[in-house]
């Protein structure tokens, strides 16, 4: 009866929207989330694409570049849990704006680095600033969207993060050709500073406080949600840390992000070194796996919301688990095949299959953050991003070690085997069971 009433209320709200009586400002917030996550990942891709030029200019080895990349991921990982706590204590608006501003300033300062130590220091500070961004965006997906829109809301984060690597190689190569590699970091630093202002201006902690959200939209967003869920509160970490689900969702995301960051940090170098691609050619082909990933994330979010709004809505959590496990399995298989494929076109094809399939696990992970965390979504976002960026810390330096000592093919084969850990971890995630039961 309760579910039936909930669906009737949702249908009524959607009818008002169709009639034009309800604003839809939340989807402008979704687009802003997309832009922020897009620029955040552009700022990471820029260094990967500029790596061959920077290595040549400063005489860096692959181990040196792996160390510089790892400095970012180490500080970024360390700020995930504190970032979630800050977003819940001070609000996603202030926390997010300050974090975007900080990371953008240090993106620009990358252009002033003169050696390995200065590069490492700037990237370390860059990671500290960016740390609270995604917990803030995760909190926004909980606060700003109806419970039946969580799949598409989560996809706005993921599509931005994966659109960055699609555009990043082409845009970075073009800007480098026109202005040199230093200008790339300055330009994107200025873009980020502008986004910090926009976030602070439009992303209220409570949608009802926004002058762009009318009463109908605020009621629709908060449908089935208690007033208590909008209050700022610190998560019950002692309960979280005793939860098998909590550890499982973090561990699986470490593996998923590890695989993704291998692509992010090393695919441009792999294509230029193994397949002898020019910078211009590499800029195009390096984008293909990320286009596949974007397509699969969009599809996964669409299907997730369809199931959530359908007559078998309780199946969404089981399907989330199954698609995540299947996605990681296909990712590992595709990467293994790619590592043993010499033809450049077929290699890119299997790389695209591999990274594309990872989109199902990514979408399932971020949707599960909302269903597991509820009003503590910021902290749970920080938790999985902490684990994800432990993978990010390891991916550049471990891959550099394997490539230097055993070659590219063995490095990718080893990466593919990590997928087994994520598949096993998903058995224990149970995304339909909230970590701490909350009032609805």
TrEMBL record:
Q: Where in the cell is it found?
A: Cell membrane
Indicate the transmembrane segments per the record. 66-87, 96-113, 157-175, 181-199, 246-271, 283-303, 324-342, 348-372, 384-404, 410-429
Membrane topology label: Multi-pass membrane protein
Protein name in UniProt? Transporter
Q: Which InterPro entries match?
A: MFS (IPR011701), MFS_dom (IPR020846), MFS_Na/Anion_cotransporter (IPR050382), MFS_trans_sf (IPR036259), Sugar_P_transporter (IPR000849)
Q: Name one GO molecular function term.
A: transmembrane transporter activity
What's a single GO CC term here? plasma membrane
Q: Which UniProt keywords apply?
A: Cell membrane, Membrane, Transmembrane, Transmembrane helix, Transport
Pfam hit, one: MFS_1
Upper classification of the organism: Bacteria, Bacillati, Bacillota, Negativicutes, Veillonellales
**Domain Major facilitator superfamily (MFS) profile, which positions?**
29-434
């Amino acid at each position: 009866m309760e579910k039936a009433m909930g669906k009737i209320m949702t249908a009524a709200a959607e009818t008002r929207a169709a009639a034009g009586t309800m604003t839809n400002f939340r989807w402008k917030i979704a687009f802003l989330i997309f832009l922020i996550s897009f620029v955040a990942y552009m700022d990471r891709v820029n260094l990967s694409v500029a790596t061959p030029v920077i290595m040549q200019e400063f005489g860096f080895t692959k181990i040196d570049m792996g160390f510089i990349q790892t400095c970012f991921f180490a500080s970024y990982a360390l700020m995930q849990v504190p970032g979630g706590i800050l977003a819940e204590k001070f609000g996603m608006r202030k926390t997010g704006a300050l974090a975007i501003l900080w990371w953008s300033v240090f993106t620009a300062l990358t252009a002033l680095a003169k050696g390995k130590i200065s590069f490492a220091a700037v990237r370390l500070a860059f990671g500290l600033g960016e740390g609270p961004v995604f917990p803030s965006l995760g909190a926004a997906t909980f606060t700003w969207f109806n419970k039946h829109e969580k799949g598409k809301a989560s996809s706005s984060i993921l599509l931005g993060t994966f659109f960055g690597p699609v555009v990043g190689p082409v845009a970075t190569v073009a800007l480098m050709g026109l202005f040199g590699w230093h200008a790339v970091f300055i330009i994107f630093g200025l873009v980020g500073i502008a986004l910090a202002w926009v976030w602070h201006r439009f992303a209220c902690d409570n949608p009802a406080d926004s002058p762009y959200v009318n009463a109908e939209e605020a009621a629709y967003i908060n449908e089935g949600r208690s007033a208590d869920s909008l209050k700022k509160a610190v998560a019950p970490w002692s309960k979280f840390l005793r939860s098998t689900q909590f550890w499982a969702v973090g561990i699986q995301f470490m593996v998923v992000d590890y695989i993704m960051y291998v692509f992010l940090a090393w695919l441009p170098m792999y294509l230029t070194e193994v397949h002898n691609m020019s910078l211009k050619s590499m800029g195009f082909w390096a984008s293909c796996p990320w286009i596949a990933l974007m397509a699969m994330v969009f599809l996964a979010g669409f299907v997730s919301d369809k199931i959530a709004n359908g007559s078998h809505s309780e199946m969404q959590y089981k399907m989330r688990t199954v698609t995540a496990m299947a996605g990681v399995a296909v990712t590992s298989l595709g990467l293994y095949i790619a590592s043993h494929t010499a033809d450049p076109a077929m290699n890119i094809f299997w790389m695209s299959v591999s990274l594309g399939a990872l989109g199902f696990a990514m979408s399932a992970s971020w949707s599960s953050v909302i269903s597991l965390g509820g009003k503590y979504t910021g902290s749970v976002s920080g938790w999985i991003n902490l684990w994800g960026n432990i993978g990010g810390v390891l991916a550049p330096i471990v891959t550099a070690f394997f490539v230097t000592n055993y070659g590219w093919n063995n490095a990718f084969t080893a990466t593919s085997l990590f997928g087994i850990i994520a598949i096993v971890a998903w058995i224990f995630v149970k995304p339909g069971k909230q970590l701490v039961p909350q009032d609805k």
